[in-house]
Amino acid sequence: MADKMLENNERARSEAREVYDLARKITAELHAEHHRTAVRFTLEPGEPGIFESKAAGTPYLPHDMPWPLDSKGQGLTLLAQVDCAGLGGLPDFPQCGLLQFFSGLDDLFGAEFDHMTEQKDFRVLYHETVDRSVTAEEVEAKRPPLPEDSEDYSPVFQPCRILLKAPAEQGITEQDPRFNPLFADKWNPLRPDAPVKGTWDVHKLVPDRLRDYDATEQPGWDGPHHQLGGYPFFTQSDPRPGECEDLDVLLFQLDSDMLPREQGGRDLVLWGDCGVGNFFINREALKRRDFSRVAYNWDCC
Which of 27, 148, 178, 194 sits a CA distance of 20 to 30 A from 49? Predict the structure, then answer.
């Protein structure tokens, strides 16, 4: 009986290897055939100057621009600022100036999930030209004081430098609505004995103990998923179907993040229970540098 169990286990392992070898092959083909350019970045604690890329801290504001306010007249807070000169020619994105994202100080960080494009309690600003005579002290003098009975909610726990990487091609992810139909179109002719509708059906072909849920992940694109451009990451689902379906570009994405354990392991960014924040824009609007209609969403586990 022991020999029979061993034989069955070996057969199960062999079949699982065949399943996942084919899944990896198809996934690699899809990554090669469907890809977008993205600029990823990392976070480093510490606040650079007002003209540099950063998360939280003091933003750049022109001499004649007041501090951005929410729908109640309270000051927004800087979520992130990107020096577009560091984007390395990311297609359709600005190549100069500063792109800024301000969030609200409420417990939803200014998000309005039923009306994601209404910039009442968040703001996206773009400064094509930057006046280097502006000082941090001048900007901070504009910051409205917090009301006594309010709390300062922000997903970013401390100012951080944004360290932009060079543009790189990112293959289509499983969260893209096209991925599973494309996967099935390749899989089913090769395995007519085990047809699937998507990768979730592939895992059902394998016993629980042998399942490899990372088999269809793209190597080198693991979290934190901080980036501009490319394919978005969600802990729940894509919120755009419906009124925001035409917002086809990931303008900016800031993921939950923490320092390595050897550096203290404290949180740098935390969206709810380890979520992620996304901003989306229509490509033609992006080309026009029109940031008046941008969807802002965050979700968590």
Answer: 148
Q: 221: which 2 tokens?
A: 């694109």
Q: Give me the helices (H) in 62-198, please.
A: 136-142, 179-190
User: Does position 12 have pLDDT exceeding 60, yes or no?
Assistant: yes
Kind plus residue range of the DSSP H or E element containing 298: strand 295-299
For residue 136, the model assigns a pLDDT of 98
> Do 126 and 94 meet the contact criterion of CB atoms below 8 Å apart?
yes
Work out whether the CA dihedral 88, 92, 98, 102 comes out positive or negative.
Answer: negative
pLDDT > 80? residue 148: no
Rg (CA), the chain: 22
Rounded Cα–Cα distance for residues 242 and 223 (Å): 28
Cβ neighbors of 135 (< 8 A, separation 6 or more) are: 50
Domains and CATH numbers, the chain: 14-299 (2.30.320.10)
> Rounded to an integer, what distance in angstroms lies between the CA atom of residue 136 and that of residue 139?
5
Question: What average pLDDT does the segment 62-83 reach?
Answer: 97
Provide the residue type at 212 as one letter.
D
Burial of 238 (0-12, 13-18, 19+ CB in 10 A): middle
**169 vs 39: CA distance, rounded Å:** 9
At residue 147, the pLDDT reads 78
pLDDT bin (cut points 50, 70, 90) of residue 8 is low
DSSP 254: E
